[in-house]
Every structure is written in C-alpha cells, then in structure tokens.
Amino acid sequence: MSEKGQTRVETDAQGRKKVINACDEPCSIEKGMRVIGGKWTGSIIFHLKDGPVRFNDLTRMLGGASKKIIDQRLKELESRGMVLRTVISDRPVAVTYELTEFGRSALKVLDDLRIWSERYNVQ
C-alpha cells in the first residue's frame, strides 16, 4: 500500500486504466518478508523462541536445512539485530544464538502464519 493513500485503478472515459497512488518502492509487507521470508529464516526464529540454542542443536531441530544455510541465515539475522550470537567456549568452540527484543517481535507474525498455513493446508 502506498504511503500517500490507498492504491487503486481508475478507468477514464475512453476505457483506459490508470493506477492512482502506485507504490514507488517496496511496501511494508514486502520489506517485512525480506527480513523473515528467506528460506528457513522463520523456522530459525521460531526455534529460538524459548531461549539460547547452540548451533548444533539448532541444526538438529531444522533437520532439512544444511549447516551452511543455517549459518548464512543466522548471520543475516544477527546483522539485522534480530539474533544475538554468544561464544560460550573457545575450545572446543561453542556458540549460542538467542532472539533480541526485535527478533522476538516477529514471533506473533510467524505464529499467525503457522496457524493460517495449517488451517488452509498450504503446501
């Protein structure tokens, strides 16, 4: 939806269509999807909801995701301020990940998406 007002299509007297208040940049929904819509990103956020999780435990929770993709998504979430990475041991290296307040703010959206997906058997 445009910041200037509601986007709509109007037809002139000659039957030509014109878009009024078209979006000139990504709308708020698209911006949000860019943050939480990446493959495995929502699942990672969901699995961090109960507190810090070690990397290897997270990879077990996300059985279908490779360690490489989980690492990439965690780095993206950390750079966006949604996840906090904490080194808990140097030898052997042990790292935990947990949601920041900003990261926790996405949980309601993700839970609503989960409910919608289950209700309509989204494939």
Structure description:
The chain has a three-stranded antiparallel sheet with strand order 3-5-4. The chain is elongated, with a radius of gyration of 20 Å. A hairpin with a 5-residue loop joins strand 1 (about 10) and strand 2. The longest helix is centred in the middle third of the chain and has 13 residues, at about 65-80. The chain is about 45% helix and about 20% strand. By secondary structure, the protein is α+β, with helices and mostly antiparallel strands. It contains six helices and five strands.
Which SSEs are present, and which pair or pack?
Layout: E1 8-11, E2 17-20, H1 28-36, H2 41-47, E3 53-54, H3 55-61, H4 67-79, E4 83-89, E5 94-99, H5 101-104, H6 107-119
Antiparallel strand pairs: 1-2, 3-5, 4-5
